[in-house]
Write a structure and sequence with these properties.
mainly alpha, about 270 residues, single chain, flat, about 0% strand
Amino acid sequence: MDNPQNSNDQVRQTEPPVCRIPADERNMPVTDPVAPDDNNGKNVYPVEQKDNIVNNEQTKNNILDIFYGVLFEPARTFAGFAPRPPVIAIVIIFVALSLAESLTSILTTPVYLDKLNLDEVPGLAGAGHFIQSFGTAAVFLFGIIKWFFMAGLLHLLAELYGGSGSARGVFTVYGAAALPAVFMIPVQIIMGLVDAGQLFDFVTGLLTLGLYVWGIILLIIGLREVHHLSTGRAVLTVMTPWLMLLSLVLVTVIFIATVASNTMSSRII
């Protein structure tokens, strides 16, 4: 006859081990597995991270922070523009920059007018002051009109290429992308006060080209972030207006050449 104590020992040995959870881990929330990143390099900050940037107050919309962020941390700054575009701050920055450029043109315009010698042209003597005043106002108004037009065009093109951002986001990005032009203001002042010669003009031309390229790069980064585009599609969005303009110029040149050729042929006949 089996001993009951031995039977109990066998039952204990066959029981499966019990997994005991530490007391400090029992009330921890259950989290879902981390999903793979489906961004595939479309932009630096996906939509969820952009929301976190804004919700955690990692982005600031005062003028100085925007100025620094656009120039030195553009991807992160423009990612914060996507959910909450700082329209008022960008308008203040852009208008102030446009006014500064217009005022500096008061110094630079006489330099170029003196090189043209308009006083020696019949009918244009004394027209320098009118040209200077008209040019200052025209530069300012053209900058504002160009801002609204190009922002609307780029927004439509970005949507055509699969973007999902807002027109306000593109509006703020285009205005912020003009910030590198602030470095040209002291250069223009020097050009208006000092006759530095051809070497300085050459360096100024290179600086202008570099700042323009910098602005284009900022515009591409901004469109990529606010419209959730890939870098390639953002580049295509920015380049499309220039390609359209180039195509229009080529068609116009071909048309004029064709008309001139037909006219010459008819005269010969």
